[in-house]
Amino acid sequence: MPSASAASSASAWAAPVTRRRSLLLGGGALGAVALLSGCSDGSEAKREADGGAHVALLRARGARDSTALLARYDATVDAHPALAKRLAPLREETARHVAVFTAEGRSPSPSATVSRSPSAGGRRVPQVPKDAKQALTALAQAERRTADTRTAALATAPPELARLLASVAACGAAHVYLLTQRDTDS
Hints:
Blueprint: H1 4-79, H2 84-102, H3 132-153, H4 159-185
Helix pairs in contact: 1-2, 1-3, 2-4, 3-4
């Protein structure tokens, strides 16, 4: 039967070995973390740069889509002047959307508008149906497509841009309602 002193010396011997192993394992883990974090710094910077390019692309698409809607509003008013009063507030909001998407790091003023020029920038003037109700329907369909595109973009947009896209998509959905609501009341 081993003596009590032999058992205590064995446990005393095991304790330093266990501590040494823990220190070695801990040191190895710290070294691995340092190595991995050193390697990931470059990829993190690349992801941030790619994210900036993605945000710029989403903002450019938003501006392009809003500009196309604005041209459609202008063409519709040109083809059907009697609709000018009804479409004016919707057109003004669409012009604000262009200003918001093209703003670089600043919030545009609430009175920001885009000049009324459907052929500006060499863009084609959209075709407008001859019938006023059909013209409103075509405008509502364009608003719906644009709102759907913005809603789909939410999945990949960073939080701040996602809030903007969601807000503008909701506004577009409200425009669809306002453009079609009177048609059902008539």
